[in-house]
Design brief:
The protein has about 150 residues and is mainly alpha-helical. The protein is built from six helices and no strands. Helix 2 crosses helix 3.
């Protein structure tokens, strides 16, 4: 078992080799979970809303302009971007773009509602959590099990 001085000591030392073998796999789980949840939100928009309705109902109403191009960007990031995050393709680029989207969500959509997720209209706590997840993915990149690694990026 190869443990650095920064790794915590396993509670059950006999599981050390198991921990070593799944360490890189855990990043794949994080990336697929974040991308999969975002993809569900994107598919909901694509399948059940129109871009014009999203632009006028969610963006323009909050003063986010130009609403129509931004609506296309949101639809793109939450579908194509989410699939690329899942696959680990252009991971850092998409994670950065999605992180910017979450900054806008925090400040314009949920910021006025306060901190708690149970606030009327939802607070900024939950989008901040997801924004930090996207930051972590952007900092780490696709990881060992990614198309980025496969193509040498």
């Amino acid at each position: 078992m190869s443990m650095s001085s920064q790794d915590p000591r396993p509670i059950i030392p006999a599981l050390g080799p198991f921990y070593d073998s799944v360490r890189d796999f855990s990043w794949l789980v994080v990336r697929c979970t974040a991308g999969g949840i975002l993809l569900i939100h994107g598919l909901d928009k694509v399948l059940y809303r129109s871009i014009a309705a999203f632009a006028s109902g969610s963006l323009s109403r909050r003063g986010i302009e130009p609403a129509m191009p931004l609506a296309y960007a949101v639809f793109f990031l939450e579908t194509v971007g989410a699939v690329c995050i899942i696959l680990g393709l252009f991971t850092r680029v998409f994670a950065l773009a999605i992180g910017v989207q979450f900054l806008i969500i925090i400040f314009f959509a949920h910021g006025p509602n306060g901190f708690g997720w149970s606030s009327p209209g939802g607070g900024w706590e939950y989008p901040l959590f997801w924004g930090l997840i996207w930051l972590a993915i952007g900092l780490r990149g696709g990881g060992p099990y990614s198309l980025d690694r496969k193509i040498g990026r």
